[in-house]
Design goal:
The structure holds 2 protein chains of 2 kinds. Chain A is of the alpha/beta class. Chain A has helices at 40-47, 69-73, 91-101, 109-120, 135-147, 165-179, 192-195, 215-220, 234-243, 266-279, 294-307, and strands spanning 2-11, 14-24, 29-33, 55-60, 63-64, 76-79, 153-157, 184-189, 200-205, 208-213, 226-232, 247-253, 256-261, 283-289. Chain A has a 6-stranded mixed sheet with strand order 6-7-8-3-9-10, with helices on both faces. In chain A, strands 2-1-4-5 form a 4-stranded antiparallel sheet. Chain A is elongated. Chain B is an alpha/beta fold. Chain B has helices spanning 4-19, 21-46, 60-71, 84-93, 106-111, 127-156, 181-210, 213-218, 224-252, 262-286, 290-307, 319-325, 329-343, 351-371; strands at 49-55, 75-80, 98-102, 116-122, 166-169. Chain B is built from 14 helices and 5 strands. The chains are: A alpha/beta, B alpha/beta. At the A-B interface, β6 and α3 of A face α1 and α8 of B. The complex binds adenosine-5'-diphosphate and magnesium ion. Adenosine-5'-diphosphate binds next to β2 and α1 of chain A.
Chain lengths: 308, 377
């Protein structure tokens, strides 16, 4: 449904998107993950024709976006990163407006709006001004407006940014229900846990994809190479771990340390750390191999990218 | 077939206008407030100008002339002087804004059937006051002389000498536009129409960008021209409504006449508005924030205020500024609206101005259409 070929876009000297290629099937949800400034928003804007690419090709359901812009756009539902509906209009008025300009006939906009409001759970707020909604409700309204014309391609830019955990869950359930309708979803997110729920993940840095694949595939790169270490005092533990010759890296995740180690060295490293920490009067609560997460892989990639 | 998209855009814009207190205030309150402010500064300045009189004649004839000045309430005859030196002192100190010198032979000349002249001295520091006082002084002089002339005509049965017997001499400048509320109200309408429409359209479009709503609009099949029309139509409607509001206040409160065709005036105002909207559209393609748009609009208003003949008479300006004034649309609209309201002329006498406005509207809309893109960059 979405096919992107060697897409490039610069702002002055800054290469925001730098040779990006993507391919996303219908029924697939693809997460574009990356730190702030990686080029996620720029990519999505290029994909809906809000920005012109410097070079590269975009095909949406086989339609060339540059040549047949409006036909291609008709397939898209876009939820921008910033709230982009009219604060002065009510929830229903906003939906009506976007339904009408999207070409829904007069007799269709109302049932469709009710249906979609119920779908996102905003039914009882139909007459509230959009500007008065909470952050999570605004995002749901944004999604509703993006869905009003039955799009085949959904572009969601950090849809759960600034939204509480319950609403986040909610939002994901909505998206998963959409996939059953053969929609292709491209979602950008800074959250790894969200990314790991997607069919495929692409990690974006400086406008380039560092790695791409199914989450299970991606984490298998570090299989058996991550140790979890919990104990006190934390700073001492991190110091000792970093000094170990076979520990390549130590990162804190909340109260845990994740140690990336050389392949096949788990037993040796655990034994050596155990005695070194005991010798310096530290205490270990937990030290064991864990299944690597996407974070571990991305941090690894970032570091090797830096080293290179 | 009805264009649903355009219709939806217009309805959306009206809902936004109605629910936005700032727009409502700018649209409905500001014009009337400005009209009263400017209308009154213009009229009170012209009324009660302190006048110093040096009457060297002190005859019944000279007193008659002074009574006429007194009766016309443009002037307060505050000082009665005995020398010309006193007069210049009073004017220099600002206590008197104008002086009238009646020569010793004033009544003799009148009686001899010759042309009598008085000297009118002006404080030129405030061109507005100076222009209006002078115009008023001349008017009074002429009215007065006409009545004298009529008396004499009855006595002598003469028909040849209709030239005024009393002539006000002055060597300051001459302003053919007598700046009073009559002249200010039409000018205000022009100013308000231009400022309001260009500012409201510019900010309404920039607001879509500033608040990010443009991003959602971009992915809809709305065409650029629909987006432009969807902004133009609501604000033309608002501006015409405003114009009627200001015109009503002008006629009912300030007594400005409507001598010509109201339909013609509205039609030509619409033409003028298209150009102003064009300015707004062009500004919107440059400005990133609503504040920037407002600043830019005021910036375009500066030459308009100075070079349209709104505040300062064009005839008194250096040739180069007069040249530039031909590129100021309000210049033409002022001629049109003053001619229609005050002189009651029809379209055939103002064709040059109409053509100028049409060219201007076309050029502005053309630039706007070229620069306006349904994209973020
Ligand atoms: N309109 C713009 N003008 C100039 N620079 C921009 C513009 N939009 C984005 N950028 C720059 O491009 C880079 C990528 O930005 P963006 O796509 O917004 O990243 P992300 O969404 O991943 O945080 C950033 O360095 C950003 O500052
Ligand atoms: Mg972003």
């Amino acid at each position: 449904m979405i096919r992107v070929n060697d897409l490039r876009r610069s702002f002055g000297d800054l290469r925001a998107v730098d040779g990006l290629s993507l391919s996303i099937q219908k029924g697939e949800i693809y997460a574009l993950v990356g730190p702030d400034g990686a080029g996620k928003t720029t990519t999505l804007r290029l994909l809906c024709g809000a920005l012109q690419p410097d070079s590269g090709h975009i095909h949406l359901a086989g339609i060339d976006l540059q040549r047949q812009t409006e036909q291609a756009r008709a397939l898209i539902g876009y939820l921008p990163q910033r709230f982009s509906l009219y604060a002065e209009l009510t929830v229903l008025e906003n939906l009506r407006f976007f339904a009408e300009v999207r070409g829904l006939p007069a007799e269709e906009w109302h049932p469709r709006s009710s249906e979609i409001l119920d779908f996102v759970g905003l039914g009882e707020f139909a007459d509230r001004r959009a500007g008065l909604l909470s952050g999570g409700m605004k995002q749901k309204l944004g999604l509703a407006a993006a869905l009003v014309h039955h799009p085949k391609i959904l572009l969601l830019d950090e849809p759960t940014g600034g939204v509480d955990p319950v609403t986040r869950q909610n939002f994901w359930q909505l998206i998963i229900r959409l996939l059953r309708q053969d929609v292709a979803v491209l979602i950008s997110t800074p959250y790894m846990d969200e990314a790991s729920r997607c069919h495929r993940v692409g990690f974006l840095q400086y406008g380039r994809l560092l790695i791409e694949g199914a989450p299970s595939e991606i984490v298998s790169r570090l299989e058996g190479r991550v140790l979890e270490l919990v104990g006190t005092p934390r700073r001492l533990l991190k110091q000792i771990a970093s000094d170990d010759p076979q520990v390549q890296n130590a990162h804190s995740f909340g109260d845990r340390l994740h140690l990336r180690i050389a392949a096949g060295s788990a037993e040796t490293v655990m034994r050596r750390l155990g005695s070194a920490i005991a010798a310096q009067a530290g205490s270990i609560e937990r030290l064991r191999p864990v299944k690597p997460g996407l974070e571990d892989v991305f941090l690894d990639l970032l570091e090797s990218a830096h080293a290179a | 077939m009805r264009n649903t998209r355009l219709f939806s855009l217009i309805r959306k814009e009206f809902i936004q206008i109605v629910r936005d207190p700032r727009t409502l205030y700018i649209t409905f309150a500001i014009p009337v407030i400005q009209l009263f402010l400017l209308g009154y500064t213009a009229t009170t300045d012209v009324r009660n100008v302190p006048l110093a009189v040096f009457d060297q004649n002190r005859s019944p004839a000279s007193r008659q002339l002074l009574d006429a000045y007194r009766a016309a309430d443009y002037f307060n005859l505050t000082f009665d002087l005995d020398s010309e030196d006193e007069l210049s002192t009073l004017i220099d100190s600002g206590e008197a804004r104008a002086g009238l010198i009646i020569p010793p032979d004033y009544s003799e000349k009148l009686l001899a059937g010759e042309k009598a002249s008085v000297v009118f001295v002006l404080d030129g520091s405030d061109p507005n006051v100076a222009a209006t006082s002078l115009a008023a002084a001349e008017l009074i002089g002429q009215n007065h002389s006409t009545s004298i002339l009529v008396e004499r005509l009855e006595q002598r049965g003469l028909t040849d000498a209709f030239e005024p017997a009393v002539e006000v001499h002055s060597h300051v400048w001459y302003n053919p536009d007598m700046e009073s509320a009559f002249f200010m109200v039409p000018a205000m309408i022009g100013m308000i129409l231009q400022l309001l429409t260009s500012m409201l359209t510019a900010t309404a479009i920039v607001r879509e960008r500033e608040r990010g709503t443009i991003e959602q609009l971009i992915v809809t099949p709305i065409r650029s021209w629909e987006l432009i029309l969807g902004k133009i139509i609501p604000y033309v409607a608002l501006a015409l409504f405003d114009m009627i509001e200001v015109l009503l206040v002008g006629t009912l409160w300030f007594g400005v006449p409507i001598r010509g065709s109201l339909g013609l005036l509205l039609a030509l105002s619409g033409l003028f508005l298209l150009g102003s909207l064009g300015i707004g559209l062009v500004i919107s393609t440059f400005a990133k924030t609503q504040q920037e748009a407002t600043m830019l609009t005021y910036f375009t208003m500066l030459p308009t205020v100075f070079l349209s003949g709104f505040m300062f008479p064009l005839a008194a300006m250096p040739a180069i500024l007069q040249g530039i004034s031909y590129f100021i649309p309000l210049r033409y609209y002022l001629i049109i609206i003053r001619s229609i309201l005050l002189k009651g002329v029809g379209a055939e006498l103002i064709t040059t101005e109409i053509i100028a406005l049409a060219i201007y509207a076309t050029v502005m809309m053309g630039i706007a259409a070229l620069r306006f893109r349904k994209r973020l960059d």
